[in-house]
């Protein structure tokens, strides 16, 4: 009988211990009361969110020029960019000629009915003429601001 009482007492003690653990591990719903799992989640978040982001690469400024009958459609195209900007001149021409960006010495031949691209980085401040070289016709003016 004594062994039976001892077994009941130990069983009751274990049951109370398990019930106490269950109550202790239940959250109160109060977010200000941190638990071990909250700390762990915060620590994990802090270690996994350290990622480096690279700044977005800026797209180049595209200057479109259409040449009709050997002259710029709508008049001389004027564009301003900042020093350091990447720029692409896109020239569509109905005449064959050499498209030349003065000051940068960038030039490309363009065939009649074709399109040519002249990419450059605006390193020199100032005002620069874009010309149909053989005809001596200005088709654009690029201003590079410091």
How many distinct domains? 2
Q: Mean of the pLDDT scores? A: 80
Beta-strand portion reads 35-45%
Number of strands: 9
What is the CATH topology descriptor of the largest domain?
Answer: Immunoglobulin-like
Low-confidence parts: 25-44
Structural class: alpha+beta
Tell me about the largest β-sheet: 5 strands, mixed
Written as H for each helix and E for each strand, in order along the chain, the element string is HHEEEEEEEEE
The name of the CATH superfamily of the largest domain reads Cupredoxins -  blue copper proteins
Give the helix tally.
2
Distance between the termini: 100 Å
- Indicate the multimeric state: single chain
Question: How would you describe this protein?
Answer:
It is a single chain. The chain has two domains: 2-27 and 35-48; 61-145, Sandwich (Immunoglobulin-like), CATH 2.60.40.420. Helices cover 25% and strands 40% of the residues. The chain is built from two helices and nine strands. It has helices at 2-25, 36-48; strands at residues 61-68, 71-72, 77-82, 86-93, 97-101, 106-110, 114-121, 126-132, 137-145. Strand 8 (126-132) and strand 9 (137-145) form a beta hairpin. The model is unreliable at 25-44 (pLDDT under 50).
Provide the descriptors you would attach to this structure in a database record.
alpha+beta, 5-stranded mixed beta sheet, 146 residues, Immunoglobulin-like, 2 helices
């Amino acid at each position: 009988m004594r062994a039976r009482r001892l077994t009941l007492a130990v069983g009751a003690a274990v049951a109370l211990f398990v019930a106490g653990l269950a109550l202790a591990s239940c959250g109160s719903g109060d977010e200000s009361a941190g638990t071990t799992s909250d700390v762990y989640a915060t620590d994990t978040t802090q270690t996994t969110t350290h990622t480096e982001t690279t700044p977005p690469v800026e797209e180049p400024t595209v200057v479109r020029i259409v040449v009709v009958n050997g002259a710029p459609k709508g008049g001389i195209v004027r564009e301003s960019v900042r020093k350091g900007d990447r720029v692409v001149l896109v020239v569509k021409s109905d005449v064959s000629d050499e498209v030349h960006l003065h000051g940068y010495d960038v030039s490309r031949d363009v065939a009649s009915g074709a399109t040519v691209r002249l990419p450059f980085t605006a390193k020199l401040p100032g005002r620069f003429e874009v010309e149909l070289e053989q005809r001596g016709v200005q088709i654009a003016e690029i201003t590079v601001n410091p």
